[in-house]
# Entry
Amino acid sequence: MPNIKFSYTYRDAGGSKKYGEVIFSTEHTIDINTTNSEIRRHLIDGEFFYPDQLAIPSIHFETYIAEIDHDWYFFEGIEITSESATDTRTFQEFLSQLKHFAKKPKNNFLIYGAG
# Structure
């Protein structure tokens, strides 16, 4: 069965971008468009998430200035891939974790209109 690639971006305060991805095995065939929409329903403003809540690898730049940079990443999308899994969780386990942390505050505040 093919795997699922979860792609995301970090953009620092200066506008520079870094791209990341995690590849999960999957237990079921999924509809990419429906699942992309489902994921977005659980993200902050439909596009942002905190990577540490989801155990997503950090892609911050080496120089990180907490006062002006931020902790959230932008969800790019998912796609089917034949590449090997890079995470031990299945996509279904990851999706369950995403739903658990959906839109939950971090450090006692929630970011709206970020970007």
